[in-house]
Each structure stands twice: as C-alpha cells, then as structure tokens.
Amino acid sequence: MAISTPKAPLTLRNLSEQVAVACQLMEGPQGVIQVLLALVNGEKVPTKDLARKSRLPLPVVAAIKNELQKRGVLRVDGPATLSDMGRSLMQRSWGGSRFQETLCPVCKGRGHRWPPGFPELLNKLTNYCRNRPRVDVRLDQSQAEPETSLLRASYMVARGGVLGKRVLLLGDDDLISLSLLLWVRESVGPDALKEFSVVVVDVDERYLEFIQEMCSRENLTVQTVHHDLRTPLPRNLGSFDTFATDPPYTVAGCRLFVSRALERMTKDGTGMGFLCFGQSRSDLLAEVQKSLCGMGLVVQEMIPMFNRYLGCSVLANSSALFHLSVSTDAAPLIRDVYEGSLYTRDSKGKAKKYHCMKCKGEYEVGPGHPIQTIEALKEHGCSSCGGRKFKAYG
Fold first, then answer.
1. CATH number of the domain at 12-98, please?
2. What's the predicted TM-score (pTM) here?
3. 204/135 Cα distance (integer angstroms)
4. Tens digits of per-residue pLDDT, 130-164?
5. Alpha helix segments (H runs only) across 135-246
C-alpha cells in the first residue's frame, strides 16, 4: 500500500519561491514578498498603486497578482486584497494586521513634503502641464506629475543647489525650469530670482518653445539651447554650479547625460547634481552607481520613488532621485561624439504589431516603418475606420 506524503504547509518562503518561478521573476522571491507586504494591512489596492508600493514594474506586479490569485492568496474580484488564506498566511509570517507601514504618512517616504499654503502654485503648474507637448517615446520622454516637478524644484532649493548658482538642466519635459522659477518667486520672493540663472538644453524644440512661452507669460527669465547631447556641449555656455537631469533609463543614457553635465561644471568641489533614474534591476542600478563613482560623483542621498510620472508604467510610474556632490577631480566618462545606443528602444530595435480594436486592421509600428510609435498611431488613427484604440498582438 502506497504511503502518501503529507503536503507541506504553505509558508511565505515556499509561496514566494513558487510564484517567482512561475513568473520567471528576475527579482526572485523577494519581488513576491514586496507585493504581499504592500497588502499586509488589509487594504484594497489597485494594480497601478500596488506597483508603486512594491517598487516593481506594472507588468511584473500584474503577473505576480495573477499567480497569487491562482493559489488562493488574493481575492479574484476587484482591486488586489488578501483572501482569508492570505491573511492567515501573513498573520503567521509577518504579524498580519499588527504590522504597520513605517513610511512617514506625510512625505510617503520621500523625506521631503509638499508644504502647506501653496495650492495656487500647484494649480497654476497643473494647468500649464495640461498643454505641454505630447511625449516622444523615441526619446524616452515620460512627463512627471506637476506635484513631482514642484517637489523636485523645492528639494533642489532646500539642498542649496539653486540660489546663488548657475543651474544646468539637461532635458526638461518635466518642466523643472518653470517649477524652479515659480517656486523661488513664491516661496522666497521676487528679488531672489536675481540670485540664480537657469539654462535648459534639450533636443526637442517643442519643449524649449513651450518653456519660453510659459516663462514669458509669467515674466520669468530662462535660457534655452537646442542641442543633441550625442555631441559635446557648446563651450560658450560657460560653467555651472548645479546640474539636474532625468536621462534615458539606460546605463549609456545616464553616463552620457552626466558626462555632458560634467563638461561644464565648476571644478572647485562645491558643485552638485540631481539625477533621476528608474528603479530597475539591482544589477543595472549597480552599474549606474559605479559610473557615478567613476566620474568622481558622491551620492549624498538616494530617495526611492521620489518622482511620480504620468507614464513609465514599466517602472511603476516612478523613479528615484539622487542628490550628488561633484568632487574636485570629477571628470566625464564620455568626452567625444557618442554614436552608440542610448534609448531603451535602441536595445529592442524591432517593430511591434497592433490591430485596430474597431475594425481589426493590422499595423506594424517601430523602426523602419512609416509610423514609429503607438502614440503616433493613435494620433493618426486607423486608415480604414478612423479608430484610435489599438491592441498589441503577436
């Protein structure tokens, strides 16, 4: 007579290992645990918010959620929430409802909060942001939420990177230039605008024109320069005390943008930088930080999920903010014309197939095709029926 082996009780360890294998998670079992911890207080959390809470890409969280539902750990209806089995498991493994989220409820872990008394300023920037140019995904553009733009500006001011400084912004689809000028005028006073200057360098002329138009409307002064950072910055820009950039989220993109900034930074050891970078795999972030150290930059502070975006769902609509100091021996890694891959799409390099959800008309979108982005396809519309909703397939 065969003797059956008792089924091992479900534990957080073996559950996370099973789901990590089923989803082929690069993050391993820890990715599953991060999702479960985001639900441990018994809340109902939409998938988008769950991605932010767990600091994982939205598609990864969706896959984990699906596997946890299959195993009865999450309820299958509505936003993600623990089932009775899931609550019992977390009670045994993590203290369940006794566990309280330890992030500051005011700043949500940013370490820098939006100060009370400035709702009009946020409303003004929000209205401006509604009219900014459409993102160009070929340039890895992803627009920050208006609150993020102002928070980043106020953080830069608070860390001593703005007043009395020449500030260089490399790329500005987040409208940090406008936020800096508005923030200083409202929080410090109009006279403080004389104490610093802002130069924006961008390859996208649409944003440069928009920034100039908005600053003119507000009677603010900003210098804009149309330039492709694949070539060194013009020497006539002079030197800067502070730089800020939200580059393409590739190691090459980070190295290039920061290298260009260092070409024009002062060499007295007082300079600082503010870098945004997506919270990606640990090996990618390790390469980024090695590059920063190799260029003579010191990470003074790194705040995960400081920046929130209207797009960038593959990175949980968020990125980290690095506060950097520039040492006296800081030097760029890239000095000459750069001809290598730069944007995230460069590493993929192949077209995607879409069909119109109205008439099922088929389209190929990407390099080598008349329409190169899904955003352009939506704007153009289906040539057969005029529909503007499309779904990837194949």
1. 1.10.10.10
2. 0.75
3. 10
4. 999 887 767 675 788 999 999 999 999 999 999 99
5. 146-158, 176-187, 205-217
